[in-house]
């Protein structure tokens, strides 16, 4: 199995712990995988495997991004897939022009490369549970409207059989901005 990659924002430890504690209180036994707090992130662009040997160039291009740090706020809990049997339960994020700008800039930096990124529209989220396994779904999900700072993003390598699953290869501080 080949290694896969993505570009994302790691959720700060204290925020991730609070999200994880809230999620654990919901008893989501309907899903096979609960995301550990240390793996909580926002995917900006999913790359998949590096079929064309472009990882070095990806890393270099990401280093050219110039954007100021910003804050994000959680905005409740939502799902992807059939509402009765959702494949993913996630923490939604309040609208953020800064996050949308960062995602767009990352995508633009990758356009000249041969890699094929995920064509689905960007829906900012933090996956809390995935892989529906059955049972009765209780949607009494309460999540504090936490706010957290985003001062970097990273290039991640995915290790599906390890914990943590997502390892940062390189981190890019947000420092500038026009």
Automatic annotation (TrEMBL):
This protein's UniProt keywords: Hydrolase, Ligase
Annotated catalytic residues: 41 (proton donor), 125 (proton acceptor)
GO terms, molecular function: 2',3'-cyclic-nucleotide 3'-phosphodiesterase activity; ligase activity; RNA 2',3'-cyclic 3'-phosphodiesterase activity
EC number: 3.1.4.58
Keyword Iron tagged: no
Motif (HXTX 2): 125-128
Listed InterPro entries: Cyclic_Pdiesterase (IPR009097), RNA_CPDase (IPR004175)
SUPFAM superfamilies registered for this protein in UniProt: LigT-like
Motif (HXTX 1): 41-44
Superkingdom of the organism of origin: Bacteria
Gene3D superfamilies assigned to the protein according to its UniProt record, in alphabetical order: Cyclic phosphodiesterase
Reaction it catalyzes: a 3'-end 2',3'-cyclophospho-ribonucleotide-RNA + H2O = a 3'-end 2'-phospho-ribonucleotide-RNA + H(+)
Family: Belongs to the 2H phosphoesterase superfamily. ThpR family.
PANTHER family: RNA 2',3'-CYCLIC PHOSPHODIESTERASE
HAMAP family: RNA_CPDase (MF_01940)
Role summary: Hydrolyzes RNA 2',3'-cyclic phosphodiester to an RNA 2'-phosphomonoester.
Protein name in the entry: RNA 2',3'-cyclic phosphodiesterase
